Amino acid sequence: MPRRRGPPGPGGRALDGRRAPAADDARRPAPAGLRPRRAGGGARHVRPPAPAAPRVPRAAPVSPRPPSGGPDDRADDLDDDDVPPPGVPASAVVTGSSLPAVPEGYRSGFACFVGRPNAGKSTLTNALVGTKVAITSSRPQTTRHTVRGILHRPQAQLVLVDTPGLHRPRTLLGQRLNDLVLATLAEVDVIGFCLPADQPVGPGDRWIAAQLQPLSEGRRGTPVVAVVTKTDLVTRDRLAQHLVEVAELLPGADVVPVSATGGQQVDVVEEVLLGHLPEGPPMYPDGELTDEPEAVMVAELVREAALEGVRDELPHSLAVVVEEMGPRPAADGGERADGMLDVHVQLFVERDSQKGIVIGKGGSRLREVGTQARAGIEALLGVPVFLDLRVKVAKDWQRDPRKLQRLGF
């Protein structure tokens, strides 16, 4: 059974060492690196699905797009003007007036999914939230930043943090992604360790378990839940064997098998994670499913489309930046009745040969990427979109600190 938090003890702390909420708390501050985020120009949130296409409130346009040529433009470096700052979200406080009354025993907190690349973390996050907040791909290392989805329940609010896959880094980018994951683990209330059922427990899983051990030790340690993903891909006998291996790897941890794509035991994962949260008021208003900035979500949808059907080496070398987003003017210079948006996006690769792969013969591949990405962007924003994609070469950007910084890593 999931371990429960103890009642508040002396000094306003629960018996497990966590702070108990005061009666007049308007909201409990999130850990330093996980505070609710707002983007410049206003918050951008995905609302719950409605019968009509959902509309996400739009903030001010991203900084104006500098002059650029067509998809065949070549550049061997990233200039300051090439990539505008990607709109890094700032911390924001949700006022108590926007939050509902908190029932007695209400729980809230952060849960983080961790695991090897392609362990099913993003798919499980989307299944729990009930809508797409993280891109998914059969390629490993799809996730490159922490993605947060928010679950609202009558007695609890759970903020899910999907992180990049932990791996042995071969580039500066890989090291920075690992550092991001390890920093996130130290700030959450419960950790979900994802181990895919179709892959045996290996050295990578044991290395991650070793990283989690000091975090989970002691009365104040962060509880770890072993989440065995992709159970629909194996037989019952293989699953049973895998569950035994996972239990031996993480003695004393809750072990939950789940199939996110099949919807099997997703509710059990939710119940177990909620059981490990401390008592406290909600941190986000009811109805918000993510606090990802609009421009970041657009860039991720483009990258997801570009990752489909490409060679193994390309996913690691592809970065996407939204240059500009703003209303598309009508022919007379006024506003369009349909609210169409101009969205200008740059895709960066490391070599000329990779640029040819992304563009395809006669631009065919790039057109496919644009068609697929546009459908997702229009579903997200709820308005028609004119999507302009440009491809550039930024040589060895994964190993260059200056280029990584300009690309938002």
Cα radius of gyration in angstroms: 22 Å
Low-confidence stretches: 1-33, 35-77, 79-97, 138-144
- The helix/strand class is alpha/beta
Number of helices: 10
CATH topology call of the largest domain: Rossmann fold
Which CATH architecture of the largest domain is right? 3-Layer(aba) Sandwich
Q: Based on DSSP secondary structure assignment, what is the total number of beta strands?
A: 11
Region (G3): 162-165
Keywords: Cell membrane, Cytoplasm, GTP-binding, Membrane, Nucleotide-binding, Ribosome biogenesis, RNA-binding, rRNA-binding
Biased composition (Basic and acidic residues): 15-28
Membrane topology: Peripheral membrane protein
Can you tell me about this structure?
With 409 residues, the chain is an alpha/beta fold. It has 2 domains: 56-87 and 293-406, 2-Layer Sandwich (GMP Synthetase, Chain A, domain 3); 103-275, P-loop containing nucleotide triphosphate hydrolases (Rossmann fold). Helix content is 27%, strand content 17%. It is built from 10 helices and 11 strands. The protein has helices at 121-129, 172-185, 203-216, 236-249, 266-275, 294-307, 314-317, 352-359, 364-381, 401-406, and strands spanning 37-38, 90-91, 107-115, 147-153, 156-162, 190-196, 224-229, 254-257, 319-327, 341-349, 385-393. The strands form 3 sheets. The protein has a 6-stranded mixed beta sheet with strand order 4-5-3-6-7-8, sandwiched between helices. A 3-stranded mixed beta sheet has the order 9-10-11. Strands 1-2 form a two-stranded antiparallel ribbon. The radius of gyration is 22 Å and the shape is globular. The two termini are 39 Å apart. GTP binds at residues 115-122, 162-166, 229-232. Belongs to the TRAFAC class TrmE-Era-EngA-EngB-Septin-like GTPase superfamily. Era GTPase family. It is found in: Cytoplasm; Cell membrane. It holds the Pfam family KH_2. It is a peripheral membrane protein.
